[in-house]
Amino acid sequence: MGLQRGLSQxxxxxxxxxxxxxxxxxxxxxxxxxxxGPFSIVLWVVAGxxxxxxxxxxxxxxxxxxxxGGPFAYVSEAFDDFYGFLTGWSMWIAExxxxxxxxxxxxxYLQALIPLTPTAEVVVRGLFVAGxxxxxxxxxxxxxxxxxxxxxxxxxxxxxxxxxxxxVFIIRPETxxxxxxxxxxxGLDNASHALILIFWAYAGFELGTLPAxxxxxxxxAIPRAIIAGxxxxxxxxxxxxxxxxxxxxWTELSQSTVPLVVAGTVLFGSAGAIIMTVGAxxxxxGSDESGMLGSARLAYAMAIDGLFPRAFARLHPRYNTPYxxxxxxxxxxxxxxxxxxxxxxxxxxxxxxAFSFLLTCFALIVLRKDxxxxxxxxHLLPLAGIAICLFLLFSTTTFDKVAGGLVIxxxxxxxxxxxxxxxxxxxxxxxLSEEAVLVRRLEARxxxxxxxxxxxxxxxxxxxxxxxxxxxxx
Length: 474
Description:
Layout: H1 9-20, H2 28-36, H3 40-64, H4 71-78, H5 81-113, H6 118-138, H7 144-171, H8 173-180, H9 191-202, H10 205-208, H11 218-247, H12 250-254, H13 259-268, H14 270-304, H15 323-339, H16 342-367, H17 381-395, H18 398-418, H19 425-431, H20 434-443, H21 448-464
Helix pairs in contact: 1-11, 1-21, 2-9, 3-9, 3-11, 3-16, 3-17, 4-5, 4-16, 5-6, 5-14, 5-15, 5-16, 5-18, 6-14, 6-15, 7-8, 7-11, 7-14, 7-21, 8-11, 9-16, 13-14, 14-15, 16-17, 16-18
């Protein structure tokens, strides 16, 4: 018997926001400042529009294929398991590359509080990855209450930055004018590469799209929730960057590895630096925890389909989590954090994401059925998505194109080796059960900005409750 309780449009919006917003805002601004200067603010808007278009493609695919597995499931249904595997493989690589990015960012922000030697920096990255791997093996639900308590701690510094920064702009508008002129000091030569780095900050919706079977009135709720969630994220990102580039000159931002600490220092001195640093450390840790979990589940889904090593589907006897793939991911993340750099890792991750998004856009063209759904834009959106993905692929560096192509092609022999083998039927049935899917998706609400919306709604409902009582009621 199916679940009687469905997810509302608000619930879905909450989950989408939680899947996107995290540590990216603490990283990307400084990287793009040295490429295009204050013009970055325009690219944050453009990247948001790109992400909304592709997110809607995912939403519509989820409507037609209400199964767990995301793009792996969509493309497999539209074409076959081979293309589905390449989609899942490239997305797993992209999600895997995000893990060392957060380890590097964590060490950078910790260095703002405690000076670290090169050896100590490596140790911090190792402990960071090992700690989050352990948390995910023990089970993220055990950390749910802690995440609730830390949500406001993570969000407060950014809200403080936005409010205080806008206040400064009202009092001293000449500050904004001085820092935003000229808007494009370096020209547009590096604009496409900067857009790649910013687009990465909007990624995450691919892990937050729900199977339509759990959503009330999915034909309307899914696209509306996607649009609402992406608009909220875009507003939050653009506001933060508007304040950041207005407070600090782009030349100073481009030389910093901790841009929000610089802005906090401008506003509140050393106290502001500490507030921003602590917020960044909590946010980076929370983002990497959810990213590690999402990538592990993708690998686990492909393993129980017989397309990945069987060991990746091995569950811990006590905690019932895919501990083998979590340990493998942790080792890879630590190694990459020691040899990679932030722009290179992010750009390579976006190339792999764009490839998986491209196949998903083609899948919607095959999956759509005009006689069974009235989804607005389902004919134009995949075409727009294809154009966006091709632009993202083209905008990556030559090294990324060559290395990314080789990595994607490396998935072919893996598929050929594992595809003849049978899937793990009992694990597959358990993983795809409606109850298990719902529990996993509700866990995503423990993330960052999504929790704030839930808190605001709860408070608003309690304030209004007395007004809804009948006269004379108790």
